[in-house]
Amino acid sequence: DLKISSLFIKVLEINSLIVNGPEISIVKDINNRINLIDALIPEDKKSPEKEIANKERYSFPINVIVKKARVIEGALTFNDSIQNIHLKSLNIDINDADLMARHLSLTSRIKNSSITFKDKEILVNNLSFLTELEQGSKVDFKVELDSDLCVFKAKGIATDIFKAPGIDFNISTTSRLEQFNRFLENKTDLGGL
After folding, report:
1. Distances, alpha carbon 90 to alpha carbons 96, 120, 130, in Å
2. What is the DSSP string of 92-112?
3. How far apart, in whole angstroms, are the C-alpha atoms of residue 90 and residue 23?
4. Which tens digits make up the pLDDT trace of 31-52?
5. What is the pLDDT of residues 85-144, one digit of tens each?
6. pLDDT on residue 57
7. Which pLDDT score is estimated for 155?
8. Backbone angles phi, psi at 157, to 5 degrees
9. Would you say 143 and 129 are in contact if contact means Cβ atoms under 8 Å apart?
């Protein structure tokens, strides 16, 4: 649902956008080149001189406002020589996004996914991330992770993100020793626990 009349006042307003089942695969090769970036940005536009010129020449000509956008049951994979991240059942809700006001409310949920780092796999049962960006400089966030390794919760606020970054947060994590020891390939002596 797109509001065309707002284009006359240089505002692209999207009232509702729903994307069902997108799949994105990102691969980083041994030269640290990422397939998605190479596909979107031609090689000659990547040089630092051209990047500065492009930033000076092209500022965003219109404001973009997204009232509501949803990604339903998406999938994202990332692979390089060290890690493999496979996110399934990815759901994202974006509300009240405004490019010029630098405001955004974002909720994402991931289920039944895996992260492999140097042949060690973590199975993610549920991961939720809620954040609210205000005026481009203040972010309230809440993260909850339930995996086969641990249960992790974090809540906090980040301020002055671009000028003098600061963060205040609380973290709570629990893990059964057997799970943690399995991840460390049974190299930890649990001392009879």
Report:
1. 20, 22, 14
2. EEEEEEETTTTEEEEEEEEEE
3. 10
4. 878 876 666 566 655 555 545 4
5. 888 899 999 999 988 888 889 999 999 998 887 778 889 999 999 999 887 778 899 999
6. 41
7. 95
8. -140, 140
9. yes
- Give the residue from 62, 70, 67, 68 showing the smallest Cα distance to 6: 62
Check: CB of residue 124 under 8 Å from CB of residue 137: no
Structure tokens at 164: 């003098």
Average pLDDT score over the chain: 81
Using a cut of 0.85, tell me whether the model's pTM lies above it.
no
Cα distance between residue 50 and residue 107, in whole Å: 35
Closest CA to 21 of 61, 64, 72: 72
Distance CA 131, CA 59 (A): 26
Cα separation, 116 vs 31, in Å, equals: 20
Question: Which pair of tokens denotes residue 149?
Answer: 């390794």
What the block records as the tokens of 14 is 């999207």
| Contact predicate 97/64, CB 8 Å | yes
